[in-house]
Design brief:
Blueprint (H helix, E strand, L loop, with lengths): L10 E9 L2 E9 L1 H4 L4 E5 L13 H4 L4 E6 L15 H14 L6 E5 L1 H12 L5 E5 L10 H12 L4 H14 L1 H13 L2 H5 L5 E7 L7 H10 L3 E6 L6 H4 L1 H12 L6 E4 L1 H4 L8 H20 L3 H20 L4
Helix pairs in contact: 3-4, 13-14
Length: 326
């Protein structure tokens, strides 16, 4: 998979954590170097999507620490809970994962709706020192479904086609009925108020073309948070974690290492994912093949099939973006 400099190929391991009658699928991404590191990253995606959204970011972070990317209940083919899928409910599942893997002080990284879940965990747990909130929602000034739909559509014009396909497949797995159950909780979650209760250092990242997470909202979050950094990546939209994964990884690692200025901007060239060593139909076909396998395995509850598909996809991406080099 993609690397930073002389990065190592990432290894994939999938495990399911059961808590309160539901399951969270955990995709662990590691390298030989990260297994010796004490650092851990826990990645939480947005509404309706899951660990697949981090397929470019996770191997980059895995060069510096163990990565745990979550498929929360109801997402990515996981059985939906009968209980109310509130932000607090999802935070419970994240805490269960932290307990299972004995992660006392991981770096929590959330994207979109995932930023709300991360914030809820931070408000509960005082021992976590670092968190990264990427494209946080929902803007307090635009708490209507119509406004948010418009903003999401505006941002979508600047997203790569590959990401659109990834999102569509994720939403199909989630299902419309469950998506609608979760949506009201996302719309009314008081992100700024809960963030003010967190003691962790917080890094805010947004794409310059992210209409769902505007600068004005980030300014409000800066005013609410106790200890906050603020960065923007040019050329990126709401799903900055994907096409600009290199930049997000660099900002995250610098932030955790206490080597990042309080605020700044990163150019599109610095942040973007490099062109693959091979591409076109060959890469699309190989990557899509294993994504389809993962999709159907998840639908059938075949966790062995899910793990195999994730591992195979990781190998394809590694060869494409490094030319097979170690």
């Amino acid at each position: 998979m993609m690397t930073e400099g002389d990065g190592e190929p990432a290894e994939i391991d999938v495990e399911t954590v059961a808590f309160d009658g539901v399951r969270t699928r955990v995709t662990r991404v590691t390298t030989e170097r990260s297994r010796e590191s004490g650092r851990a990253f826990v990645l939480i995606a947005g509404i309706g999507v899951a660990a697949t959204y981090f397929d470019l970011l996770a191997p980059l972070l895995a060069q510096r620490g163990r990565v745990y990317a979550l498929d929360l209940p109801g997402f990515a083919g996981q059985r939906a809970p009968r209980t109310d899928p509130s932000v607090a409910f999802f935070a419970d599942q994240v805490e269960a994962v932290l307990e299972r893997f004995e992660l006392d002080d991981p770096v929590l990284l959330g994207h979109s709706f995932g930023t709300q879940i991360v914030t809820e965990v931070l408000a509960r747990r005082r021992g976590i020192r670092h968190a990264v909130l990427i494209g946080p929602v929902v803007n307090d000034r635009e708490r209507s479904l119509v406004r948010q739909a418009i903003r999401f559509a505006q941002s979508s014009f600047f997203e790569p086609f590959r990401l659109v396909l990834l999102a569509v497949s994720a939403y199909l797995l989630c299902g419309f009925a469950y998506f609608i159950r979760v949506l009201p909780h996302m719309m009314r979650y008081p992100l700024a108020a809960r963030l003010s209760q967190a003691e962790a250092r917080v890094l805010l990242i947004r794409g310059a073309r992210d209409f769902s997470s505007p600068r004005s909202f980030h300014s409000a979050l800066v005013g609410a948070a106790r200890d906050v950094w603020r960065w923007e990546i040019h050329g990126a939209a709401h799903s900055v974690i994907n096409g600009s994964a290199v930049g997000v990884a660099e900002l995250t690692n610098a932030f955790v290492a206490d080597a990042l200025p309080r605020r700044g901007q990163m150019s599109e060239a610095e942040a973007r994912v490099p062109d693959p060593a091979y591409g076109g139909i060959a890469l699309v076909w190989r990557a899509a093949r294993y994504r389809v396998q993962e999709w159907f395995s998840a639908r059938e509850g075949d966790e062995v099939g899910v793990e195999h598909a994730k591992e195979s996809h990781a190998a394809v991406m590694w060869r494409a973006f490094t030319g097979g080099r170690r």
